[in-house]
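Give me the fold.
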Amino acid sequence: MSLEFEAAEILKQVALDEEIKSFVLQHTSLYQPLLHAALRFIGGEILPDCIETAKSLNQQGFAVTIDYMGESTRDADMAQQATQEFLRVIQVISEQNLNSSISLDLSHIGMVIDAELAYKNAYILAEAAQSAGLEMMISMEGTARTNLNLKIHQRLCNTFDNAVFTLQAYLHRTPDDLESALQRPGKIRLVKGAYTTPDGLAKPRGAQLDQAYRQLMERLLTSGHQCAIATHDSTLLDPIPLKYTHQFAQERGIELDHIEFEMLKGVTQERLEAMKNCGYRTRVYLPYGQEWHLYLCNRLAEYPPNIYQAITDAAQYKYGR
Protein backbone atom coordinates (compact mmCIF):
# COMPACT_ATOMS: atom_id res chain seq x y z
CA MET A 1 0.00 0.00 0.00
CA SER A 2 1.50 3.37 -1.04
CA LEU A 3 1.99 6.22 1.42
CA GLU A 4 -0.29 8.38 -0.73
CA PHE A 5 -3.09 5.78 -0.53
CA GLU A 6 -2.67 5.48 3.26
CA ALA A 7 -2.83 9.26 3.61
CA ALA A 8 -6.01 9.37 1.53
CA GLU A 9 -7.68 6.67 3.64
CA ILE A 10 -6.76 8.46 6.89
CA LEU A 11 -8.14 11.74 5.55
CA LYS A 12 -11.43 10.01 4.69
CA GLN A 13 -11.64 8.76 8.29
CA VAL A 14 -10.85 12.25 9.62
CA ALA A 15 -13.58 13.70 7.40
CA LEU A 16 -16.19 11.44 9.00
CA ASP A 17 -14.98 11.84 12.61
CA GLU A 18 -17.60 13.95 14.39
CA GLU A 19 -15.31 14.62 17.38
CA ILE A 20 -12.60 16.12 15.17
CA LYS A 21 -15.19 18.16 13.27
CA SER A 22 -16.70 19.47 16.52
CA PHE A 23 -13.25 20.36 17.86
CA VAL A 24 -12.42 22.35 14.72
CA LEU A 25 -15.74 24.19 14.80
CA GLN A 26 -15.29 25.20 18.45
CA HIS A 27 -11.73 26.53 18.20
CA THR A 28 -11.29 29.74 16.23
CA SER A 29 -7.52 29.24 16.03
CA LEU A 30 -8.18 26.14 13.89
CA TYR A 31 -11.50 27.08 12.34
CA GLN A 32 -10.47 30.27 10.56
CA PRO A 33 -7.20 29.04 8.97
CA LEU A 34 -8.85 25.79 7.81
CA LEU A 35 -11.84 27.73 6.46
CA HIS A 36 -9.35 29.84 4.49
CA ALA A 37 -7.94 26.61 3.02
CA ALA A 38 -11.47 25.34 2.26
CA LEU A 39 -12.39 28.54 0.40
CA ARG A 40 -10.15 27.39 -2.46
CA PHE A 41 -12.74 24.66 -3.08
CA ILE A 42 -16.09 26.16 -1.98
CA GLY A 43 -18.21 29.22 -2.72
CA GLY A 44 -18.30 30.37 0.90
CA GLU A 45 -20.14 29.63 4.12
CA ILE A 46 -23.27 31.61 3.23
CA LEU A 47 -25.35 31.90 0.08
CA PRO A 48 -24.56 35.58 -0.69
CA ASP A 49 -20.83 34.76 -0.81
CA CYS A 50 -21.51 31.77 -3.03
CA ILE A 51 -23.61 33.90 -5.38
CA GLU A 52 -20.73 36.35 -5.80
CA THR A 53 -18.39 33.46 -6.63
CA ALA A 54 -20.96 32.12 -9.10
CA LYS A 55 -21.17 35.52 -10.81
CA SER A 56 -17.39 35.61 -11.16
CA LEU A 57 -17.30 32.14 -12.70
CA ASN A 58 -20.17 33.03 -15.05
CA GLN A 59 -18.21 36.07 -16.18
CA GLN A 60 -15.29 33.77 -17.00
CA GLY A 61 -17.60 31.72 -19.23
CA PHE A 62 -18.35 28.83 -16.86
CA ALA A 63 -21.77 27.67 -15.75
CA VAL A 64 -22.00 26.53 -12.12
CA THR A 65 -24.03 24.11 -10.06
CA ILE A 66 -24.70 25.31 -6.51
CA ASP A 67 -24.94 22.83 -3.64
CA TYR A 68 -25.89 23.67 -0.07
CA MET A 69 -23.50 21.21 1.57
CA GLY A 70 -24.83 18.46 3.78
CA GLU A 71 -25.74 14.79 3.84
CA SER A 72 -27.05 12.03 6.11
CA THR A 73 -29.58 14.31 7.83
CA ARG A 74 -31.24 12.31 10.61
CA ASP A 75 -33.73 14.90 11.84
CA ALA A 76 -36.93 15.63 9.91
CA ASP A 77 -36.93 19.31 10.84
CA MET A 78 -33.37 19.70 9.58
CA ALA A 79 -34.33 17.96 6.33
CA GLN A 80 -37.14 20.48 5.91
CA GLN A 81 -34.77 23.35 6.68
CA ALA A 82 -32.38 22.07 4.02
CA THR A 83 -35.23 21.85 1.53
CA GLN A 84 -36.21 25.45 2.28
CA GLU A 85 -32.60 26.55 1.79
CA PHE A 86 -32.50 24.87 -1.61
CA LEU A 87 -35.73 26.68 -2.52
CA ARG A 88 -33.98 29.91 -1.59
CA VAL A 89 -31.05 28.96 -3.81
CA ILE A 90 -33.41 28.40 -6.74
CA GLN A 91 -35.09 31.75 -6.11
CA VAL A 92 -31.80 33.66 -5.95
CA ILE A 93 -30.41 31.95 -9.07
CA SER A 94 -33.56 32.99 -10.91
CA GLU A 95 -33.56 36.55 -9.55
CA GLN A 96 -29.86 37.04 -10.34
CA ASN A 97 -30.22 35.40 -13.77
CA LEU A 98 -27.25 33.15 -13.09
CA ASN A 99 -26.10 30.38 -15.40
CA SER A 100 -26.52 27.77 -12.69
CA SER A 101 -28.23 24.57 -11.69
CA ILE A 102 -28.63 23.17 -8.16
CA SER A 103 -27.01 20.02 -6.78
CA LEU A 104 -28.03 18.00 -3.77
CA ASP A 105 -27.67 14.73 -1.89
CA LEU A 106 -31.02 13.04 -1.32
CA SER A 107 -29.83 12.11 2.19
CA HIS A 108 -29.59 15.84 2.94
CA ILE A 109 -33.34 16.24 2.42
CA GLY A 110 -34.51 13.18 4.31
CA MET A 111 -33.60 9.89 2.60
CA VAL A 112 -31.89 8.44 5.69
CA ILE A 113 -35.00 9.22 7.74
CA ASP A 114 -37.60 8.05 5.24
CA ALA A 115 -37.41 7.51 1.48
CA GLU A 116 -40.88 8.97 0.99
CA LEU A 117 -39.88 12.16 2.80
CA ALA A 118 -36.88 12.52 0.50
CA TYR A 119 -39.05 11.93 -2.56
CA LYS A 120 -41.60 14.54 -1.49
CA ASN A 121 -38.89 17.11 -0.81
CA ALA A 122 -37.10 16.28 -4.08
CA TYR A 123 -40.43 16.65 -5.92
CA ILE A 124 -40.90 20.13 -4.42
CA LEU A 125 -37.40 21.14 -5.48
CA ALA A 126 -37.62 19.63 -8.97
CA GLU A 127 -40.91 21.44 -9.53
CA ALA A 128 -39.49 24.77 -8.35
CA ALA A 129 -36.34 24.28 -10.41
CA GLN A 130 -38.30 23.38 -13.53
CA SER A 131 -40.51 26.45 -13.12
CA ALA A 132 -37.31 28.54 -12.96
CA GLY A 133 -35.83 26.77 -16.01
CA LEU A 134 -33.11 25.05 -13.96
CA GLU A 135 -31.71 21.55 -13.72
CA MET A 136 -31.60 19.72 -10.39
CA MET A 137 -28.53 17.51 -10.12
CA ILE A 138 -28.83 14.51 -7.81
CA SER A 139 -25.45 13.42 -6.47
CA MET A 140 -24.71 9.76 -5.91
CA GLU A 141 -23.85 8.58 -2.40
CA GLY A 142 -22.48 5.40 -0.80
CA THR A 143 -23.42 1.96 -2.11
CA ALA A 144 -25.96 1.38 0.67
CA ARG A 145 -28.01 4.22 -0.88
CA THR A 146 -27.59 3.49 -4.59
CA ASN A 147 -30.90 1.65 -5.03
CA LEU A 148 -32.86 4.33 -3.18
CA ASN A 149 -31.26 7.07 -5.26
CA LEU A 150 -32.22 5.23 -8.42
CA LYS A 151 -35.80 4.60 -7.33
CA ILE A 152 -36.39 8.23 -6.34
CA HIS A 153 -34.91 9.47 -9.60
CA GLN A 154 -37.12 7.08 -11.58
CA ARG A 155 -40.20 8.41 -9.79
CA LEU A 156 -39.18 12.02 -10.40
CA CYS A 157 -38.74 11.28 -14.11
CA ASN A 158 -42.41 10.34 -14.35
CA THR A 159 -43.16 14.05 -13.94
CA PHE A 160 -39.99 16.03 -14.62
CA ASP A 161 -37.29 16.14 -17.28
CA ASN A 162 -34.85 18.36 -15.37
CA ALA A 163 -33.59 15.83 -12.80
CA VAL A 164 -29.92 15.03 -13.54
CA PHE A 165 -28.68 11.68 -12.25
CA THR A 166 -25.11 10.82 -11.24
CA LEU A 167 -23.49 7.47 -11.99
CA GLN A 168 -20.22 6.24 -10.48
CA ALA A 169 -17.93 4.41 -12.88
CA TYR A 170 -16.15 2.38 -10.21
CA LEU A 171 -19.23 0.31 -9.32
CA HIS A 172 -19.54 -3.02 -11.13
CA ARG A 173 -23.29 -2.43 -11.51
CA THR A 174 -22.96 0.90 -13.35
CA PRO A 175 -23.07 -0.38 -16.98
CA ASP A 176 -26.56 -1.78 -16.27
CA ASP A 177 -27.60 1.36 -14.39
CA LEU A 178 -26.45 3.46 -17.34
CA GLU A 179 -28.61 1.50 -19.78
CA SER A 180 -31.62 2.06 -17.52
CA ALA A 181 -30.87 5.76 -17.10
CA LEU A 182 -30.61 6.21 -20.87
CA GLN A 183 -34.31 5.30 -21.10
CA ARG A 184 -35.27 8.23 -18.87
CA PRO A 185 -35.22 12.01 -19.47
CA GLY A 186 -32.68 14.25 -17.81
CA LYS A 187 -28.95 14.64 -18.17
CA ILE A 188 -26.64 11.87 -16.94
CA ARG A 189 -23.55 12.92 -15.00
CA LEU A 190 -20.66 10.44 -14.99
CA VAL A 191 -18.08 10.49 -12.17
CA LYS A 192 -15.40 8.00 -11.20
CA GLY A 193 -16.63 7.51 -7.62
CA ALA A 194 -14.91 8.16 -4.32
CA TYR A 195 -16.87 6.43 -1.53
CA THR A 196 -15.41 3.51 0.39
CA THR A 197 -17.27 0.37 -0.69
CA PRO A 198 -17.61 -3.20 0.63
CA ASP A 199 -15.38 -5.76 -1.07
CA GLY A 200 -16.55 -6.93 -4.45
CA LEU A 201 -18.76 -3.96 -5.36
CA ALA A 202 -16.27 -1.61 -6.98
CA LYS A 203 -13.13 -1.43 -9.06
CA PRO A 204 -9.97 -0.09 -7.42
CA ARG A 205 -8.59 3.27 -8.48
CA GLY A 206 -6.03 3.00 -11.23
CA ALA A 207 -5.89 1.57 -14.74
CA GLN A 208 -8.92 -0.68 -14.28
CA LEU A 209 -11.14 2.20 -13.20
CA ASP A 210 -9.75 4.49 -15.90
CA GLN A 211 -10.70 1.93 -18.53
CA ALA A 212 -14.19 1.48 -17.04
CA TYR A 213 -14.76 5.23 -17.05
CA ARG A 214 -13.59 5.48 -20.64
CA GLN A 215 -15.97 2.72 -21.79
CA LEU A 216 -18.95 4.24 -19.98
CA MET A 217 -18.10 7.67 -21.34
CA GLU A 218 -17.94 6.33 -24.89
CA ARG A 219 -21.36 4.71 -24.47
CA LEU A 220 -22.77 7.93 -23.06
CA LEU A 221 -21.28 10.18 -25.71
CA THR A 222 -22.47 8.02 -28.62
CA SER A 223 -25.97 7.60 -27.15
CA GLY A 224 -26.93 11.16 -28.05
CA HIS A 225 -28.23 11.61 -24.49
CA GLN A 226 -27.47 14.87 -22.69
CA CYS A 227 -24.47 14.18 -20.48
CA ALA A 228 -22.01 15.72 -18.05
CA ILE A 229 -18.49 14.31 -18.06
CA ALA A 230 -17.30 15.04 -14.53
CA THR A 231 -13.63 14.19 -14.22
CA HIS A 232 -10.22 15.85 -13.88
CA ASP A 233 -8.38 13.04 -15.68
CA SER A 234 -5.82 14.74 -17.91
CA THR A 235 -5.49 11.71 -20.21
CA LEU A 236 -9.17 12.07 -21.11
CA LEU A 237 -9.52 15.84 -21.21
CA ASP A 238 -6.48 17.76 -22.35
CA PRO A 239 -7.29 18.83 -25.92
CA ILE A 240 -3.84 20.25 -26.62
CA PRO A 241 -2.18 18.03 -27.63
CA LEU A 242 -5.32 16.32 -28.92
CA LYS A 243 -6.35 13.89 -26.21
CA TYR A 244 -8.87 11.14 -25.96
CA THR A 245 -12.30 12.66 -25.28
CA HIS A 246 -11.99 15.58 -27.66
CA GLN A 247 -10.61 13.34 -30.40
CA PHE A 248 -13.35 10.75 -29.82
CA ALA A 249 -16.08 13.40 -30.15
CA GLN A 250 -14.49 14.96 -33.21
CA GLU A 251 -14.02 11.68 -35.08
CA ARG A 252 -17.62 10.61 -34.50
CA GLY A 253 -19.17 13.97 -35.24
CA ILE A 254 -20.87 14.13 -31.85
CA GLU A 255 -22.97 17.26 -31.29
CA LEU A 256 -21.11 19.54 -28.89
CA ASP A 257 -24.34 20.76 -27.28
CA HIS A 258 -25.01 17.22 -25.98
CA ILE A 259 -21.84 17.31 -23.90
CA GLU A 260 -20.90 19.24 -20.80
CA PHE A 261 -17.68 19.01 -18.83
CA GLU A 262 -17.86 19.55 -15.08
CA MET A 263 -15.07 20.04 -12.56
CA LEU A 264 -14.69 21.05 -8.94
CA LYS A 265 -13.86 24.61 -7.93
CA GLY A 266 -10.17 24.99 -7.25
CA VAL A 267 -9.10 21.81 -9.03
CA THR A 268 -7.32 21.92 -12.43
CA GLN A 269 -9.49 24.75 -13.76
CA GLU A 270 -7.04 25.14 -16.65
CA ARG A 271 -8.37 21.87 -18.08
CA LEU A 272 -11.93 23.18 -17.95
CA GLU A 273 -10.76 26.38 -19.61
CA ALA A 274 -9.20 24.33 -22.42
CA MET A 275 -12.44 22.40 -23.00
CA LYS A 276 -14.41 25.65 -23.04
CA ASN A 277 -12.03 27.05 -25.65
CA CYS A 278 -12.74 23.99 -27.80
CA GLY A 279 -16.45 24.90 -27.84
CA TYR A 280 -17.80 22.62 -25.11
CA ARG A 281 -20.21 23.68 -22.40
CA THR A 282 -18.47 23.74 -19.02
CA ARG A 283 -19.64 23.84 -15.43
CA VAL A 284 -18.02 24.28 -12.00
CA TYR A 285 -19.38 22.45 -8.95
CA LEU A 286 -19.80 25.16 -6.33
CA PRO A 287 -20.81 24.07 -2.82
CA TYR A 288 -21.37 26.39 0.12
CA GLY A 289 -22.27 26.10 3.79
CA GLN A 290 -20.70 25.26 7.13
CA GLU A 291 -20.19 21.56 6.39
CA TRP A 292 -16.89 22.39 4.69
CA HIS A 293 -14.76 20.26 7.05
CA LEU A 294 -15.95 17.05 5.41
CA TYR A 295 -15.65 18.56 1.95
CA LEU A 296 -12.11 19.86 2.52
CA CYS A 297 -10.90 16.50 3.82
CA ASN A 298 -12.41 14.73 0.83
CA ARG A 299 -10.69 17.08 -1.62
CA LEU A 300 -7.36 16.46 0.11
CA ALA A 301 -7.98 12.70 0.19
CA GLU A 302 -8.61 12.63 -3.56
CA TYR A 303 -5.22 14.21 -4.22
CA PRO A 304 -2.99 14.17 -1.10
CA PRO A 305 -0.41 16.62 -2.59
CA ASN A 306 -3.18 19.23 -2.14
CA ILE A 307 -2.31 19.02 1.56
CA TYR A 308 0.70 21.24 0.84
CA GLN A 309 -1.54 23.85 -0.77
CA ALA A 310 -3.98 23.66 2.16
CA ILE A 311 -1.14 24.20 4.64
CA THR A 312 0.03 27.19 2.57
CA ASP A 313 -3.49 28.66 2.44
CA ALA A 314 -3.98 28.19 6.19
CA ALA A 315 -0.56 29.69 6.98
CA GLN A 316 -1.23 32.70 4.75
CA TYR A 317 -4.36 33.41 6.78
CA LYS A 318 -2.62 32.79 10.11
CA TYR A 319 0.39 34.98 9.38
CA GLY A 320 -1.25 37.55 7.14
CA ARG A 321 0.74 36.84 3.98
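Residues 59 and 73 are 34 Å apart (CA to CA).
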